[in-house]
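re: ur question from the group chat, yeah i did fold both. here u go
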Amino acid sequence: LPPFRRLGLGGATLNAFHHLAVARGAADTSVEDPTPGLQRLREVGDAKRLSSRASFTAAASRTIKAASWKRGELELEPLLPPRALRIEAQREAKIPPLQLAKVWELLLARALSTFLAEPGLAALQRQAADLALETVVKRRIASKFEEGKKTPVKRMHELEGRNFFLWRSWKGTQSNIQIIVELDEEAEEAKEEQMLQLVEERVEYLKAAAASW
């Protein structure tokens, strides 16, 4: 209801929910079908809890600083939270892996904001640090586009100048049935544009959220 908005009640409710789960020994916490607003509120709350742990703030800071010295395309693995932190987040903070992936982006955005405020940084360092956050966000969002899709073994064939994929049927491992599917380049381009738009919006949100703590 409007009279009760902007009073911190949502965040307080989520905090109470989290503390109750910890007190009762829950394995982790989750919210079924959250609204975008609730999801953002939960992300910020979880990020604040993890930022109170020196292990997470130090790891996010190291990740951004290390990335700032890289040139060219960044490898994903060094940008993700180490295994020890993933275990700590789930066992002690009751944050499941999928939620941690989003919260880690927020922690990186926070570390990025602090890093970019340092004097004397070279332009290439700033660009590389910025790219680190974008790389992590892009990989997570790209994985959502791939969810639920099997990736069969395929061979590329060129027939009269047009590209086709030759797929093996999924109807049993012994089947010799094969299907030819034309590559829809326009659909792929549209999907790529949609994904890049989501990445841009997410990065913009993360930077704004990190700056407002």
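okk and heres the other one u asked abt
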Amino acid sequence: VSVSERPGQGAHFRALVARSATPEARQRPRAAPLPRPCFGFEEQPIAVATSAAAPSPSSGGYSGAEVTGVAPAGQPMSPEEVAEAAYKSLLSTLGPEYSSRPELVRTPYRAAKAWREMTQGLRIEDPLEVAGTGIFDVPEARDLVAIRDMPFHSMCEHHLLPFSGIAHVAYIPDGKVLGLSKFPRLLNVFAKRLQLQERLSANFADAVMTLLQPRALAVALEATHACMCHRGVGVNASTRTLVLRGPGRGELAVKEQLLDGVSFSSGARARL
């Protein structure tokens, strides 16, 4: 097998490795360690501490462990700095030549920023607060309400890879309704964290139940998962989850309305 390289590519690194492998080099006393070639910085030690409180129903079972780092000077590092340092360390596993490419210098900063955005739902202590004043008493509201095709993006907690899809919610109100824009806001609070689709469906349904106490409710999510499509089995399949809530969900006519609202086919309804 032959490997071709651009002139000078990797020559300095190979020379360092060759010199360190000689018996004379192993016997010489070692001076201060060479800085790691990743991005031209010396990696800072990070002390990570977590503290988990008891999960609360409104937070979807997450307490949001607090993560702190310690810089060499003893100053605490912000969560953003801890995340950036972690991404730098991760990139260094690709090898010194690849990880020191100029194109990757700001990648840890961008990745850490994206990580914070994708988990920003954890920084909302009470997800129900996003409903604000959007709950209305409407005595005439007794029939089906369906909100469909709400896009969402979340992150699989098993592989830290994204999954994305659409959500539908249908409910039979009992004189109380929620402003339409509050449904996607509430969904995103639970989606913007490390999640499982099954839990996300239940979190969303339970939150709507808490806010409105409807007679019956259905939530359906359909998503594709990068952990299934981009790795492992490599199958571009979609996953659908269904959650039914409310005292009237067992009534046949009510269930038919709910399943129609979240677009389950007649064949699927027959199996439920």
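fwiw on the second one: Strands lie at 69-70, 76-77, 135-137, 145-156, 162-172, 176-178, 194-195, 216-225, 238-245. The first strand starts at residue 69 and ends at 70. idk if thats what u expected
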